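Morning run. Coffee first, then this:
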Amino acid sequence: MKRQIIKTLDGSTTIHLEDWNESYHSKHGAIQEAKHVFIKNGLTLFENKSISILEIGFGTGLNAFITFLEGNKKKQKINYIGVEAYPIGTNELLEMNYVQELKAVDFTNVFVLMHECNWNHKIEITSDFSLTKRKQFFNEIDDQESFDLIYFDAFGYRVQPELWSTEIFQKMYNSLKPNGVLVTYAARGVVKRSMISVGFTVEKLSGPPGKREMFRATKNI
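And here it is:
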C-alpha cells in the first residue's frame, strides 16, 4: 500500500495511505486531535493518579509522546502499553516533526527511544514513565482489568470496520479496570451501539478541529 508523509493543517505531520484515502491522524491537525481526544478528554480525568494506559494503534508514537510530555510536567506515574501490528519504518519516523512542533527538543531522545526500543519488552523511559510496545493484532488482546484508560486510535470504520466490532469492544471492556475509560475520535452510531452492547456507558463529546463529535465510553462497575 502506497504511503506518503503529509503535513496536517496545524503544521504537524502524519502518514497518509493513498489506496484507502486514510491517514494515521486527522488532516485538520495531528497534534490538535491527539491533545483534544486523548489528553483533554482522557488523561486529564486521572490527574494526580498513577495510571495504566492501553493504546490501540501505537502508529507514529504521537499519542505516547504527548502523554509522556503531559505526565512529565505533572510528575504523574504512567505505565503505557501501545499495541501495533504493523510498526512504521525508520524513514517515516525521521520525517515526523512532532518534537519540533511540540517544542520538545529537550526530549528528542525520548521520542527516538520510544521507536527504537525492543518490542514486547517493558522499558523505563523515566522513573515515572514506562513503555511496553506490543506487536499484536487487536483481536489477540486478552488483558483482564489491567488498564485505567484506553486510547482507541485504530484506522477508521470506513476502511477497517472489523476493528470497531462488538468482539473488539468486548476485549476493550474486559481489559479495563472498574470505572475505566475509553476515548476515541469516532462518533458513528454503529460504533456506539457496539460499545453499549458490551456494557459501556457512552458519552458524545465535542470533537477535535474538523470533526463535530467524538465518543468517551466508561465501564461503570
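The mean pLDDT is 96. Good start to the day.
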